Amino acid sequence: MEMKRDFLFFVLILTCAFFTGCGSVAPVFSNASDWAFYSAGTKAVSYDGKGTFQFVEGYRTEENLTGDSAMHFVTADNYNKHYPAYGLITKVLKSIPQQIDTVYFAIADQFLVLQLKEDNPVWVPNYEIREDENGKRPIWNIDAIGMGQSNLIKPSDNIIWRNIIKYGKNKFIACVDRMIIKGKLIGIVYIISSSRKGYPRGMNWDVTKFVNVQSLGQVLEHNKRISEKILETNN
User: Fold this and answer.
1) Is residue 103 domain-resident?
2) Taking the CB of the first residue and of the last residue of the chain, which one, N or C, has fewer CB atoms within 10 A?
3) Per-residue confidence (pLDDT) for residue 58, from 0 to 100
4) Nearest-angstrom CA–CA distance, 150 and 153
5) What 3-state class would DSSP assign to 68?
6) Is 127 part of any domain?
7) 223: domain range?
8) What are phi and psi of 11, to 5 degrees?
């Protein structure tokens, strides 16, 4: 009887360890009271020094991919399964390879601002956005030129690391730009979606197909300018 009890106890310990190790931790959102949000300019300003995040006008800021014309400012106060974009936002958050400390906020289902943890193995960037000798900021393909800061755990103050995550089955792409803002490693996530059932306000072309790479490149270049402006505003 005692051996059986010990065995059951051992199984219970293993079960707890399995679920603890394999289960995903729900992301922690900041509170709406931490931010002043200006919907007209799609701008969020922190009350406690986290930074100012301005998403340049002209990037479909009047629309929401769920077909709602309101630009929802999503924080801990309204991030739940009743929100139409809950599934999309959750899928993107779960796919970020680097551990998330805090989700500052989401704006509809187009933008996410994250504070990332620095104490885990580096998520190697696909690209670097940094100044050249002419003062311009081209996008450098890390794989193509064999350069970059892939041996470090975070970019330096004036460099942006970029990764592209493709969700072919779901017809959308996440562009993640990482940078240092107010001494913290911040990820700016741009969700680029194709128009489909449930997301009628997306692009009217398949963002995941190679034939549309030029159009996608134009969107990514626009996102680059947004990230550069955010970096300049906060540093």
Assistant:
1) yes
2) N
3) 47
4) 8
5) coil
6) yes
7) 29-234
8) -65, -40
